[in-house]
Structure formats: structure tokens, C-alpha cells
Amino acid sequence: MGKLSTTAKKAILISAGLVVLLCAFFFIFQRNQDTVTQIENQTRQFRNRVNYLSQLQIKVNELQETSEKHQKAVDTYTKEFPCMMTQQKAIYNVYLMMVKSGVRVTAIKPGEAIDFLKEGKIISAEEQQNQVSNTSETEAASPSGIEASPEEQTTVDHMVGKYSSYEIEMTGTMKQIMKALDWVSDNKEHMAVTNTNLNYDVKTGKLTGTININYFELNGNGKPYKEPDVKGISIGTDSIFGVLKN
């Protein structure tokens, strides 16, 4: 076997070198390149995820601020209600209305307490009417939960809102009657005139009849009950609270 010429040896070495390069490219570089591409894709996905979460966090912060503002508004609003409305307090309010307006109150007929808010939901007018019917047919159930301790602080979802309708029989001039209605509508505590039935007396120039006032309470708003001062209230005959001195 003859010896390889120098040119042949060079050709073999070059071919071997090319084979090594090709093997390195396909088995090392190409495989690493695929890994790099996968990592770049993953990095891009993670970057998009980070951007999304960053934007989401901004919205969360904004909602947090809005939620805190709404919570403060809710707390302020719920504190406007008395935690409970006793007959003594309701009658005392009628007395204050009479003093401020000058009307003469001749009779007061208290009504039963009706739920308008329970478990965070407003009770419909139909359901409220059913409460009136059920109360008239059966004895009222003993209070439980927050209704048994209305002065405690709880969340809105657990508060119980009630209203009691009082029928007030009164007499007074048009000006006095309007003052009485304004006193109710402008009161800090939530109350409302729901019905008026007044007749004009030509001889006296006064209006006589009844109005219905709804007194609202919110059990569980954490507002302590304040007993009204009734020491100065006198009881009369023609007028429940006697004759007021001007």
C-alpha cells in the first residue's frame, strides 16, 4: 500500500475538521440554540405575566382606596340611625316636634317594628306587609342575635334595619303643620311622614287629623342608645303633653 501524498493528507484532515464542525454544530450548538429559544420564549411569557400582574396590582390599589372611601361613607351613614327606637324615644321625638312647630298633639298610636333590612338585603314591600300580617296573627318572636344586643358593632351584612309607624293625632294652623313636617324631614335621625289625613275647620282656621311617622333604627351599628330626658314633659288632658308656655 502506497503512502498518502501530502495533498491527500491535507484533504483528509480538512474533511475530518469539517465533520467535527458539523457534529459540533448539530449536536452542541444547535441543541443549545433550541434551549436558548425556549428560555427566551419563557422569559417573554414571564415578562408579560409580570406586566399583567403589575397592572393588576395598580387596579387593586385603586380599588382598595375606593373601598376604604365607600366603607367610611357606609360607616357615616349607618351612624345616622339610632341603634334602637324605643316607644319612650319615639314619643319624646313627637314632643320635640310639637315644641318646635306649635301643633297640639291629642293622641299617639304606636305601631309594631317591621324589618326593612336583614342579612345585607333590603326587604321588599310585599315581605314587609307579610310581617305586619304575621305579627297581627301571632305573638312576636323573642329577639335573637344582634336584635337582642342592638348596641353592638357588626358588619352591614349582619345589621338589622327596622321601622315603627306611629299615628299622631294633632291640630294646628297650616303654618304649624308645615313646621312639624319640616322638623321630621330635616331631623338628623332617619324618620319620615308616610301618610297625612287632615281636615280644615272653618270656624277655628286650623287643620285637624292624623299623620303617620316612620321611625327607623339600625341594630348593630355600634351607636350607643341615649335615653331621652323626659323630666320636663308634663301630661295633659286635651293635649297629651299639656299646654306649652310660649
What can be said about this structure in brief?
The chain has 246 residues and is α+β, with helices and mostly antiparallel strands. 46% of the residues lie in helices and 21% in strands.
Explain what the structure shows.
The protein has 246 residues and is an alpha+beta fold. It contains four helices and six strands; from the N terminus they run H-H-E-E-E-H-E-H-E-E. It has helices at 6-78, 87-101, 125-137, 174-186; strands at residues 104-109, 113-118, 121-122, 160-172, 191-201, 206-219. Strands 1, 2, 3, 4, 5 and 6 form a six-stranded antiparallel sheet that branches. A hairpin with a 4-residue loop joins strand 5 and strand 6 (206-219). It is rod-shaped and about 150 Å long. The termini are far apart. The mean pLDDT is 82.
